Amino acid sequence: MSENASIESVLQETRTFPPPSTFSAQANIGSEEEYQELWQRAKDDPAGFWGDMAQNLSWFQPYESVMDGDMPNTKWFTGGKINVSYNCLDRHLETDRRNKAAIIWEGETGETRVLRYQDLHREVCKFANVLKGLGVETGDRITLYMPMIPELTIAMLACCRIGAVHSIIFGGFSADAVADRNNDAQAKLVITADGGWRRGKEIPLKAAVDASLEKSPSVENVVVVRRTGGDVDMVPDRDHWYHDLMQGASADCDAVELDAEHPLFILYTSGSTGKPKGVLHTSAGYLLGTTMTSKWVFDLKEDDTYWCTADIGWITGHSYITYGPLSNGASVVMYEGAPNWPDEGRFWEIVEKYQVSIFYTAPTAIRAFIKWGDQWPEKYDLSSLRLLGTVGEPINPEAWMWYHQVIGQERCPIVDTWWQTETGGIMISPLPGVTPTKPGSCARPLPGVVPDIVTEAGESLDANQGGLLVMTQPWPHMLRTLYGDHDRFLETYFSTIDGCYFAGDGARRDDDGYIWVMGRVDDVINVSGHRLSTMEVESALVAHDKVAEAAVVGFPHEIKGEGICCFVTLKGDDGTDELKKELIQHVREQIGALATPDQIRFAASVPKTRSGKIMRRLLRDIAAGRESTQDTTTLEDYTVLAKLRAEEE
Ligand code: WTA
Description:
binds 5'-O-[(S)-ethoxy(hydroxy)phosphoryl]adenosine
């Protein structure tokens, strides 16, 4: 983007929903004054503020200073000794929580397992001893390639109990992706399962690990959980059944006293080019961030039943299925499978069955629910819900309204949470007892987060001007480096705007100071010299009652520079030329002639990453009629691309 140019915002949304007064009355942060005071204090005196917050954690040895050094190399809680597993488990055993459900697990095939805090603690201690028995030492990297089963949480907490660094790879990735990540991290051990269930089919995880190990020689041992009972090859001396190892293991294992900045985990996230980036988070700062944001944003209470539908292979599952909620002693629902298995009511059946009170999901899932129809949620009792959340991409206002009306029954506040793998925890979000919400806006920064919206030259923009979303102050749960490549870390996040963190999103602030994220700046298109956010055109399309999902990209256009190409998935109807005209007209009416689509292409589905984000860079190639040279290793369903190309012909 040229210096000083801003991104034009065409999205108009004026509805506002104040928090219900009954919610505010019981909320962890309950008033605007309290929010303002916390936010201002954290901005003016971050060390004092985060030092006070750190009293929510249990320390083996107090730190000497809260923060040292400027962004991006700020060190947090120097001198302090801590253990994340201790904070998520042991400290609860001294309270009534020891008998409380920590994990309420539902398998795709219908079975249930409940692990109370003391059960989880016992299993984690045993497995930590198993790891030690296999020669794992503090600082070693361990790959976890597992289905959504309690053993995944057990393995995570066992790693951090002994100071091993986990690297979780989503269970749908290919053997090559596992090998690349094993090699990058020089992983010593892999924990996997025979397989996992997804829509009634078995995903053969162990077979993929076997194939990956031909290319990743650093791995010495493999631990295999039996989940599906499928056939697997066990290589003698290298491969071990989890249940065999656990049988003889002692349940006595003290949590190691680790430095505050001890590495906690690596999580690979795809870059737009080149090899995946190994985002590294460390112990105390990350734990503090996820602990506090869980309290503030999800308003966690002792009797909540909390369910985040993400996969643990994604940062949302790390921060808001495992570390944040367990550090708060919450009861966490964990579901193994797909939302439409055995039918499209599965999520709502789970909400009813476990009386879920807090529900956190992604806009892509919400759009799928809308497509499947209201009859599914209507079959179940959703009255236990008190708070809803979304994460992962901008939520279009129509999907927000549906979530509010059909799932929240106009009773539950919605927290639209903006954050990233790199930020470790939620950065910008409504506080459910305080913030009047506006559909499509993630509202305002949390205490400790000081964002700005700037031009490429780094100048702050006024209200209603779109620009780059940056962070101007360090926060405890930010990434510390990209594993093994600190130069790439500096270049990727700190070279665009002097002295600020920038990770690629465009946004604007409205007159009330609310932030509206406009998607990745790479997805901005330039139509006749006007820079438009593709996400806003998508939002307009999805507001049409026949449209389920839309992905908008630019393509080279002789006259306009870039033209607007819209891939549209319909709710039911077949796409006709009539409907194409209607949709073009609809977008013109909603956001103006400038945004008139040049092409509408109906598609059965659009390519997405496994965390549900539309892969617009692939669609750009299709729209331009180019062969794609893009990295597709994070694509959820490879057949989608072939289908889209076929539809073109
Ligand atoms: C996008 C997910 C708008 C954004 C936790 C960000 C969002 C990227 C929101 C990070 C939201 C996430 N509103 N956009 N509430 N939440 N994003 O690393 O583009 O998988 O940069 O982390 O998702 O994705 P990641």
